[in-house]
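tool_log.txt
---
The assistant was asked to compare two proteins side by side. It first ran the structure predictor on the initial sequence, then on the second. Raw inputs and outputs are pasted verbatim so the downstream comparison step can read them without reformatting.
(1)
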Amino acid sequence: MSGAGVVKHPDQAQVAQALCVSAAQLREWLERGEGVIVLDVRPAQQRAEWAIPGSLHADVYDALWAGAPDALAHVRLPAGGPVVAVCGEGKTSLLAALQLRARGVEALSLTGGMKAWSLAWNEAEVPLPAARAQVVQLRRTGKGCLSYLIGSRGQALVVDPALEPDVYRQAAERRGWSIVEVLDTHIHADHLSRGRALANRCGATYRLPEQGRASFPFAALRDGDVVALGEARVTARRMPGHTMESTVYDLEGRALFTGDTLFPDSVGRPDLEAKAGEAEARARALHASLKRLLALPSEALVLAGHASSPVAFDGRPVAAPLGEVGKRLAVTRQSEDEFVRWILGRIPPTPANHTLIVRLNEAGVLPEGELADFEAGANRCAVR
């Protein structure tokens, strides 16, 4: 703070003085339920896109960068552990931390901000009574990506991996499983698939739905193909629409890994990477796919590839029985023409960098550098 009482942007000495915390450390605190208070200082529009579950919000971004010494004076913080200030990339949050520390508050700044947080994750066990496999949902809490670790008799399969390979390896090892199969439900447009890298790391088979988009070797899955896993069986059910190769993986009628075809509260968008006139054809294909999908056992859990909001550290899986989803979504009962008009009239903005992400996923390549630079921002694969 200057002699005039105006907060200046921090130099290196101030950075060292205002303690920072990594996304990994904050994730551990939240997962353990420690009393950390997360204070989001981004503009309201940015926060509306994606946020850390349970965080407080103070729309003081402009005031902080203008050097206002009282930018946070109106903010009332609950008693508890340290305050972690959060912004987009960890710069404005440092200004917030400095102001709070000047008030005697134990305050930290999240290093790398929400961009770094986009790789944070938590997990939840999925209850499947009497099933011949166990399922763990691994969630990128900031990004909303959902992936799955399925285990049976010491073997494990991963669906739609969106986290670093070691996350899945370690989760499997803790349960005494070895990863032998890695599956993606489709070529993703909002995150970089870690599927090929994970399969290579584990010596597992990497499988994709049959299509001509991927330019690298993979084991193709066709409609009706079965993947054996210990005592369990996973059946590939082709469900074109979100993409033309989109496939749902059916775990013996008990769990449906639906990718971006069907969510507990919405349906997949049919327009990403669609050429002129293709979006309507894909919307019609999606309508037919949803009809076939909803004819499967109503008690089967819908386990989608994304959540519609940041995933809390509550250990509760994002899931719903198929029958409940069908009742909840009136759009699934529309005629084909009604459905096409509805979905094409509600298409959300496209995900950031989606064209580049698709090209990298088609090539099976993870770029050098920070992957969060490519993936930052909310997922936008659903229409609701």
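(2)
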Amino acid sequence: MVKMAKKLSKEPYKGVRDFYPEDMFALNYITDVMRESAERFGYVEYSASLLEPTELYESKTSEEIVNEQTYTFTDRGNRSVTLRPEMTPTVARMVAARRRELSFPLRWYSIPNIFRYERPQKGRLREHWQLNCDLFGVSTIEADVEIISLANEIMKSFGAKDEDFVIKINSRNALADLAKKANISSEKQNELFRLIDRVEKMKPEEFKQELENLTGKNAEAVKRYMEGEEVPEDVASILQALAGRGIKNAIFTPSIARGFDYYTGIVFEVSDTNPENNRSLFGGGRYDNLLENFDEESIPAVGFGMGDVTIKEFLESRNLIPTYISSTDLYICVLSDEAKQEAQEIAGVLRSEGFNVALNITEKKVGEQIKKASKDKIPFTLCIGDDEIKSRKFTLKNLINEEETQTSKEGIADVLKGSSS
């Protein structure tokens, strides 16, 4: 008896996505806005492989991410390799490798895909695309203000209003001082930071208990700080500078600590104000000491990462993603064998002028051809048959508004150009 082969699943790997044309349209819109916004601020694009030596993340990325959330494997050369869970260590490595050749300050951005092995849930997947913007070489608050201003600019470029999001800012310097007041050793300092970063996801009694376990009798200083009545000096200066730039939706938030161990100064998060999605959308901060891992002198740096998943949910909830339309400008319907050559020539001319043209190569009837174009969200159709060849008159149909325009062969391009102006 022949054993039947097991049928393959049609589903993608858990926690990742397939991008059909409509999904790719939305992703491209999001990344195009990200890219254009970053470049308006003078940031230039870089990239790198998604494979990195595991040791790159072991020294400064949080233990939870390294031990529980990375895709790590041993390659054929017996080296431990990790699919990048974030981009900051990579860009720090690249800057360290050529720091003597580079001209500072650097304004760099990238939009890589990121991998983390975590439980898929709303706003979190195992793979996503993430804008990373980093400014190297400026230690003053002007750099922090610029990077937060850029984050605000991107949100506004998506069409978000001030009341749609809030920029929450805190100070790792202030938290470090707080740890000293609570007599927490430098080795356990990051434990306090991570506990504070989780406070909004914890029950008050649970946070109180874990805080007391960590600080003993010195928990009161932390509790007072968490009340937010006294704004750290560096945060106050940044809030004032942002207000001077017209950014009024930034606030001091003592519960913001960020989970990565490499942050050294200002940290911030941009959060959705919608009560039904009251969550962090993205964030970042200052990381001045990361280059020391490569036996290099410190270079001041500040940056942020913005993932496509949470931003897409934010935009969809406010109808801020444009309606899908095909990247194909025109579908040419062919009505007879004699018209094939004419259709090929017209398609060739239009393509040479920059238009994206799909040409029917099936035996489908004209109605089915038009239906195909409409289903694919192609905005225009042009039908070519014996009558069109004889009369030299062609009819362009706009499938969006149902309008028809009669034109000569030479005028087809002008009609298409006029529709996009």
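---
observation on (2): The chain has a mean pLDDT of 91. Residues 289 and 298 are 5 Å apart (CA to CA).
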